[in-house]
Design goal:
two-stranded antiparallel ribbon; 81 residues; SH3 type barrels; 6-stranded antiparallel sheet; globular; mainly beta
Length: 81
């Protein structure tokens, strides 16, 4: 069984403990909030533009989180899969 994956992951704001971070329908705070991700949750990154990351979190929720709210992605880093 392989122990490595080609999928990029990140932790949602582990410094927030049990607080939550909004998962938006699109990259921007004016977009509808789809879900609230608890700090420390591991999400799979689809892409990042340097400000927002498109991510999937447990429960099948897929949306956008501000890149500064993720641990595992450098500030301003662009990611594409």
């Amino acid at each position: 069984m392989p122990l490595l994956s080609g999928r990029r992951t990140a932790l949602v704001a582990p410094w927030k403990g049990n607080s939550t971070v909004p998962l938006y329908a699109s990259g921007g705070r004016e977009a509808p909030v789809l879900a609230l991700a608890k700090g420390g949750v591991v999400g799979e990154i689809d892409r990042c533009d340097g400000t927002w990351c498109e991510i999937e979190v447990p429960g099948g929720y897929h949306g956008f989180i501000e890149q500064t709210m993720l641990w595992g992605v450098y500030p301003g880093e662009q990611v594409s899969n």
